[in-house]
Amino acid sequence: MKATAAVLEQLNQPLVLSEVDIPDPGPTEVRVRLTATGVCGSDLHVLDGTIPFATPSVVGHEGAGIVEAIGAAVTSVAVGDKVGLIAPSCGHCDPCLNGHQFTCADSSLKWGRVRSDGTPAITRNGEGLAARFLGQSTFATHTLVEERTVLKAPAEVPDEVLAPLGCGVVTGAGAVLRVLKPQPGESLVILGAGPVGLSALMAAVNTAAAQIIMVDVSEPRLELARELGASAVVNGKQTEDLVATIKELTGGGANMVLETTAVPALLQQATQMLPSRLGRLGIVGAPGPDAVFSWPTIPLVMSAAQINGVVMGDGNAAFVQGLMELYLAGRFPVDRLVQTYSFDDINKALAAAASGQAIKPVITF
Ligand SMILES: [Zn+2]
Ligand SMILES: [Zn+2]
User: How far is the centre of ligand 2, averaged over its atoms, from the C-alpha of 174 (Å)?
Assistant: First the structure.
């Protein structure tokens, strides 16, 4: 069928709206008419070449939409269902079988650029475009994905809320609820009030954590963090010694620190914000491929600290469905992070994400 996609023709150039063709679904595939797609940092990193993908290509991986056609073997959704798109997964590796679906070991599903049979998921004038970006490619009016990448959603969840749940939001919320798991009375420091950090904050507000401290350098974002339930905010630009400030606020160190900024110096400091025993560090932000941080072994061992790398919030389909319920219950106001743009303005949405002018730009169709 004919569709319109925002094609990355060349790195560092604006996307170009272009007529494309979407094939009919194979047995395990679902064709979705998109109603919304979020813009995420990983999309921007493809556009500027930091993440090697391909050109011409179609990226985007925070989709929401309506099922338009399904393959013969598809059972979890039907034509007309409202769906959110989630990270791709194989369904049979150890992580998939043990509740860690978004940490699936088959990375070809995320970066493979083509369908499982090797054919393109999007063509233009008969030529395949690189697609299936993170299993999705949602910068288009329609997309063709594997059944395991769609999740039936309640009609009441707004499209612009549903879309970012599948990546940016689940990444922050899962890091808190599934990995760090705040216990009653504990303290949590979140480094970075971007979409991931603010999602982590909104999740943490639903736990028994006694202290939730947001660190950022933007006053408007810190103000939003306060409104969303942060018990304290720290402006990193106005603080001479961030580690000392955190230690003072938490009475000796935060039980948990979540690093979302991908700033190596902050990650290094994060190791020093933990208490003398049993601190937990969650690392979501991924700086460049050569970035390292160090932790003297004896203090690390003697403090019995935990270091957790977190992919996609260690999420799975059931967890994302839980976040939808939490939103509907009024306890997870993702809409506060969202700014919507029309598809024609997709380059404006990308620019707003890159500059930080919008926290979570979402394109609605
Ligand atoms: Zn993402
Ligand atoms: Zn898997």
Answer: 18
* 190 CA to centre of own chain: 16
Q: How far apart are CA 102 and CA 110, in angstroms?
A: 10
Cα-to-centroid distance, 94 and ligand 2 (Å):
7
What phi-psi label fits residue 216: left (phi over 0), alpha (psi between -120 and 50 degrees) or beta?
beta
Q: What does the pLDDT read at residue 125?
A: 97
pLDDT digits (tens, 9 = 90+) for 71-128: 999 999 999 999 999 999 999 999 999 999 999 999 999 999 999 999 999 999 999 9
CA of 102 to the centre of ligand 2 (A): 8
Query: Of 3.40.50.300, 3.90.180.10, 2.120.10.30, 3.40.630.30, which CATH number belongs to 2-153+333-364?
Result: 3.90.180.10
Cα(180) to centroid(ligand 2), Å: 23
Cross-strand bridge partners of residue 142:
33
Q: For residue 195, give the nearest of 337, 351, 364 by alpha carbon.
A: 337
Residue 290 pLDDT exceeds 90? no
Name the fold adopted by 172-311.
Rossmann fold (3.40.50)
Ligand nearest to the CA of 96: 2
Distance between Cα 41 and ligand 1 center (Å): 6
Model confidence at 174: pLDDT above 90: yes
Domain ranges of the chain: 2-153+333-364, 172-311
Compute, in angstroms, the gap from residue 182 CA to the centroid of ligand 2. 27
Q: How far is the CA of 168 from the centre of ligand 2 (A)?
A: 20
Distance CA 192, CA 259 (A): 7
2-153+333-364 and 172-311: identical CATH topology = no
